[in-house]
Amino acid sequence: MWDFVFKSANFLAMLAWFVLILLPRKPITLSAVMYLGVALLCLVYSVSMISIIGGFVDPVGPDDAQGGFTSIEGVRALFASDGGLTVGWVHYLAFDLFVGLWIARDADAKYFSRVLQAPILLLTFMLGPIGLLLWLIIREGRARTFGWKRNRINV
């Protein structure tokens, strides 16, 4: 079961990233990425997490390990089962896709070319926080440049 959920979530995320990076950004495509991509991944995450916590499917981690978020051993125990690993992975997929969608919308609103956006989005897809950090640096640079030009023109 977990193998199917894992592979399905990966396929869904890959498809959504393909749409986000390569297809024209019409309202329908952005809505599809948000609701058929991000929201569906969030739903898979929620149902999976509730199933694990409720004891409807395999517990997370080995019986003798205490899972939790306050130590590396606790987090390791959470990811020690196929269910825990899949739920964690779907969590990453959903959030990275949401961040990618935000970057794309923000970049479009600030008139960044799709050629510049593509590598940032690919980096966000592969290494989420690094892509986000790069976007924030580039975005800040453009904001400072634009703000300086605007103030200079108005003076």
Describe the structure.
With 155 residues, this protein is mainly α. It has one domain. It is built from 5 helices and no strands. It has helices at 2-22, 27-53, 72-78, 82-109, 114-154. The longest helix has 41 residues, at 114-154. It is elongated. 25% of the residues are buried.
In short:
With 155 residues, this protein is mainly α.
Give the tally of β-strands. 0
Q: Major sheet, described briefly?
A: none
Summed up, the helix count is 5
SSE succession: HHHHH
Number of domains: 1
Measured between the Cα atoms of the first and last residue, the distance is 65 Å
Average pLDDT, all residues: 86
Helix content: over 70%
Q: Low-confidence stretches at least 5 residues in length (pLDDT < 50)?
A: 151-155
Question: What share of the residues does DSSP label as strand, in percent?
Answer: under 5%
Apparent shape: elongated
| Alpha-carbon Rg, integer | 19 Å
Q: What class would the helix/strand composition place it in?
A: mainly alpha
What are the SSEs and their pairings?
Blueprint lengths: L1 H21 L4 H27 L18 H7 L3 H28 L4 H41 L1
Helix pairs in contact: 1-2, 1-4, 2-4, 4-5
Main traits of this protein?
155 residues; 5 helices; 0% strand; 80% helix; elongated; mainly alpha
